[in-house]
Every structure is written in structure tokens, then in C-alpha cells.
Amino acid sequence: MNEILTIHGYAFDSSLVVAIVVVCLLLTIALVVAQGSLVMPAQLKFSNRVVSEAYVDVNEYCGSQDDEVMQLAFCSNENAVVNAKTKEVIARYNAGSQNYRLLAYLFDNPNKTISERDLASKVNPASPDSFYIRKAICNLKLDKELRSKMFTVHGSNQVVLNTEIPMTTNAA
After folding, report:
1. Which of 62, 104, 110, 160 has its CB 3.0 to 4.6 Å from that of 71, i.e. a possible disulfide?
2. pTM above 0.70, yes or no
3. For 10-42, what is each residue's pLDDT tens digit?
4. CB 162 within 8 A of CB 140
5. Architecture field, domain 43-166
6. What per-residue confidence (pLDDT) applies to 87?
């Protein structure tokens, strides 16, 4: 004999309620499994080498094991510049934005001198004549001290991204 459950004035057979709960649990488990198989670990870029965040040995990728150097990485899945050692997010950007494209390209080419023209064709291909390195770097909204250590601008038309930042008492 089945028991009748009353919820807010509505009567339900207990076997129906159990069946609905089981179906919901199975759907939840299926969604979690499907989402888990689709989500890839965040990718960090270190000196042209892409490594999975789950397998990062920071000392292997950093040029120095000194605590007074901060190794930067760009995590494209998180749209963020991160401290590679602590995984702390330094700045987050909208996917596909000019800031995102700028950082993605520079982190693909760390410690290399890149001309404004090359950078403009990759970052702002629709109107490369309106792209200026200094303005683009300022638009990243990074701390002024960090920005000055992160980027070396040669003249008005060349830039280098420094992925190892010397730490001072004022830097984060």
C-alpha cells in the first residue's frame, strides 16, 4: 500500500516523489560528469611553454628560485594575469577584449622585443593605425610600479614583456 504525501495542499503518491527525486539526482550526476569532462585545467604560459596548472613546478619554470622575484603568467581560461608561484590573480580582463588580446600575445612572446606595428596587427587588426603601445599598456589598469617593471618600452614603438619581476617592499 502506497503512502500519500501532502505538500501545500497537493496530494502525491510517495513512489512518485521517490521517482522524481531519483531522476533529479541522476540528472545532476550526469551534468556534473559531463561538465567535468569538458572543463580543462587552466593553462598558464611560461616563456613560450604551456603547462597545466595542475602540474606546475614553479621552480622548474622560473629563472630564479629567489623569493624576491615574482614570476608572472597569463591564465587564458581565467582571463587573468597571475603570480605563477601563488596563483594569486593580479588582474582580470574580459575575454576577447583588446587588453586580453594584448596580454595573450605578449605572454606568447615573453622577453622579446615586439614592434608597435606587429602588436597592432595582432591586437587591433581592424584599425592598426589607432594603436599606441604606451596607451594600451596604461589601459591595462595595473599598478604603476608593477606596470613599469612588467613592460620595457623602447622609444615609442617597441615593447618587451618581462615575466620575472624583481620584488621590492612596495610591490605586490
Report:
1. 62
2. no
3. 888 888 888 898 998 888 888 877 766 544 444
4. no
5. Orthogonal Bundle (1.10)
6. 84
